[in-house]
Write a structure and sequence with these properties.
binds pyridoxal-5'-phosphate, 7-stranded mixed sheet, alpha/beta, 3-stranded antiparallel sheet, Aspartate Aminotransferase, domain 2, about 15% strand, Aspartate Aminotransferase, domain 1
């Protein structure tokens, strides 16, 4: 019985060749040949005015929090059903996450609940496109405009996903991508900040480059560079960018492969879904998914936990997902006490299935069979 891992990093094209090339170019720190190539490719393909590569999506979120000028006591509306970085990026600036429940179909923030969560202290809305499926962005952007709020898209899982013809990450004032090895397009650890509001570009470059105006110096706009703002070291190495460029060149092929895997799971589990035993992910008509994830909703948390154990016993590494932040040790201080029925009920029933570029049909078949057998 061979193990089926949950995720496995992969080579899709010229990643290793490009790393060797980066070495011969004699520049392994940031913002060399490959960092620029990646940023240009993302800008062109997704119609984003400015993309800055970062060492992680977490770093991009931290930059976004600073660019939104979130300060002590400022509130940021977000789902509780998300990864810790969505909240911690703003908490580091003194901000307070205000958690809102998710929709039961996409597991994204329920846009109908956002307006009621806005107070005079609200500074921004940080949406999360779960599983690479878009939030209801038209409604969210309209609410934000009416209240003068910034919108940050945590599109860590949403690279190469679309909403009404627009790329995720290109819709809010700022968007954040992840190229962590568990995401669709990878370089080990990596990310990008998408800057859709041109007024934020110059400060973003400064924050990313240790608080200096070095980028302006390189462009010949100032005659020396110096410390001008609070910043950090948010530039990735050329080695990571070289690997990433090899992946981004193959973005269509990677997406097609994941789409085929997604469709096979959906077909294999359809009869169980039709009989009401399990729930399957939904993709609204306005959305094009990058097929980041395939999850199954079990009938109860007990059934989910038993299934996890039984799949583990068969060497199949399925996984639960987020512990809602409002019930986490560091996040419970921000819990409002309001009910979040979808977040609480869905998070304990959700099971993510193995999903990666090199997952074979036979392996998938085994996963589907074992789910059916152990229900
Ligand atoms: C993966 C992920 C992150 C963090 O990405 P890193 O690149 O590992 O920092 C943030 N938010 C969401 C929703 C994620 O899925």
């Amino acid at each position: 019985m061979t193990k089926i891992p949950f995720n496995k990093p992969f080579i899709a094209g010229k990643e290793l060749f490009y790393i060797a090339q980066a070495v011969t170019y004699g520049n392994l720190s940031g913002d060399g040949h490959f960092t620029k190539k990646c940023a240009e490719l993302l800008q062109d393909r997704f119609s984003i005015p400015k993309v800055l590569l970062t060492p992680s999506c977490t770093a991009a979120l931290e930059m976004a929090a600073q660019l939104c000028e979130v300060g002590p006591g400022d509130e940021v509306i977000m789902p509780s059903y998300t990864f810790v970085s969505t909240a911690s990026a703003f908490v580091r600036m003194g901000g307070r996450p205000v958690f809102v429940d998710i929709r039961s179909d996409t597991l994204n923030i329920d846009e109908q609940l956002i307006e009621a969560a806005i107070t005079p202290r609200t500074k921004a809305i940080c949406v999360v496109h779960y599983a690479g499926v878009s939030c209801e962005m038209d409604t969210i952007m309209e609410i934000a405009a009416r209240h003068g709020l910034k919108v940050v898209e945590d599109a860590a899982q949403g690279v190469n996903s679309w909403y009404k013809g627009r790329a995720l990450g290109s819709i809010g004032h700022l968007g954040c991508y992840s190229f962590h090895e568990t995401k669709n397009y990878i370089c080990g650890e990596g990310g990008a900040l998408c800057i859709n509001d041109p007024a934020l570009v110059q400060r973003a470059e400064i924050i990313r480059d240790k608080g200096t105006n070095r980028q302006r110096f390189f462009r010949g706009e100032v005659d020396k560079y110096t410390w001008v703002d609070v910043g950090s070291s948010y530039v990735p190495s050329e080695i990571c960018s070289a690997f990433l460029y090899g992946q981004l060149e193959e973005i269509d092929r990677i997406s097609e492969r994941r789409g085929a895997i997604y469709s096979r799971y959906a077909a294999g589990l359809q009869s169980l879904a039709e009989s009401g035993v399990i729930g399957l992910p939904q993709i609204p008509a306005d959305c094009v998914s990058n097929y980041h994830m395939f999850y199954v909703l079990m009938g109860s948390s007990a059934i989910r936990d038993t299934m996890l154990e039984r799949l583990r016993a068969q060497q199949i590494h399925a996984f639960f997902h987020y512990v809602p932040l409002h019930s986490s040790p560091a996040g419970s201080q921000y819990a409002s006490g309001d009910e979040m029925p979808n977040t609480d009920q869905i998070s304990v029933r959700l099971l993510r299935l193995p999903m990666f570029f090199d997952l074979s049909k036979a392996e998938q078949q085994r996963v589907v069979e074992q789910i059916a057998e152990n229900l």
